[in-house]
Amino acid sequence: MISQVPDYVYQHKVVDYDKNMPLVFIGGMPRSGTTLMRAMLDAHPDVRCGQETRIIPRILGMRANWLKSPKERVRLDEAGVTNEVINEAITQFILEVIVKHGKPARFLCNKDPFTLKSIKYLKELFPNAKFILMLRDGRATAHSIISRKVTISGFDINSYSTRDVLTKWNRAIETMFVQCNEVGSKNCLPVHYEQLVLHPAAETRNILKFLSVPWNEAVLNHEKHMTNISLSNVEKSTDQVQRPLYLDALTSWFGKLPDDVMRDMATIAPMLRRLGYDPNDPTPEYGIPDPFVLNKSRTAR
C-alpha cells in the first residue's frame, strides 16, 4: 500500500495519506445543492473538495455491475481477482484521485453526486469517512434538471418528461437516503438544500461540527473566495455557485409542472413525504430566510 508520496505536501510537510483519512463525501441527486455545499466547504481554509471527478462514481458503478453478473463473478474468482483484491484496488484508485486532483488540505472531500449511492461500500473502504447527503424538494430538482438540460445517464431529459425524471429521482434518492440511515447519524448527515439557503449560519455550523472541522465564517461568503475555489466549465451549476446565496431557486418550479404530474405526485414520488415535503402542496413554504440571507439577496440584485 502507498502510505507516503513525496509530492503530496501540506504546510511544507510531506503528508501521509491512507484509507483511514477522515475523507468527506458530498452527494445527492444532481441539482440538489451539491455544488453549493462543496463551494461553501471549499471556501474554508482547511478544506479542499474541488470539481467533480466523474470517474469515482463510474468505478463504483463498474464494481456494482460485476457483482450483478454471476458469470462475471465466477470469471473474476477463477482469475484470482477476489473481492479483497477488488476492494484494495478501488480503495487506492479513489484515494489517489481525491488526493491528487487538487491542492493539498487538512481535510479532503469529494463531490460526485451519485457516489452516495454507494455509501455502505465506501464506509467499508474508508472507515473514518463521513457523508453529506444533499436533499431537495424533488419537484424543484426535476424542474431544474429539465429547464437547464442537465444530462444524466439513464434520465429521459430530451422528451421533457417530468414524470419520468421524478420517478427516477425517487428511486435514486431512496437508495441514498436508506444507506445514509443505515450507516448512522455519526457517519452520514442529511442536509436540506432549502434550509442551507434559508439558514446558512446554523446549517454550516452543524455541518462543520459533524465533520469535526473548526468553524470559519468564510463558508458563509463563498462567493468572495472564488479565486481559491476551483470550478469546472462543464458543470451546469458553475455559473450559479459564483453568486451569493439567493432565494429564487426555491420557488422557480412553482406553476411549471404538468397538471397530471401534480395530481399524481404522491404516487410518482413517495419519497417527497418521507423527506418532509408535502406532495399535495403546489406552493410550499420552506421557511423564513435569515436577515443575513435577505441582505445578500438585495445586494446581489
Annotation keywords:
EC 2.8.2.20, globular, Rossmann fold, disordered N terminus, protein-tyrosine sulfotransferase activity, 7 strands, Protein-tyrosine sulfotransferase, two-stranded antiparallel sheet, 301 residues, alpha/beta, glycoprotein, membrane
Task: Please summarize what this structure is.
It holds the Pfam family Sulfotransfer_3. The protein has helices at 34-42, 55-68, 70-78, 83-100, 119-125, 138-147, 162-183, 193-198, 200-211, 238-241, 248-251, 259-263, 265-268, 271-274, 291-300; strands spanning 4-10, 13-16, 24-28, 47-48, 107-111, 130-135, 188-192. With 301 residues, the chain is of the alpha/beta class.
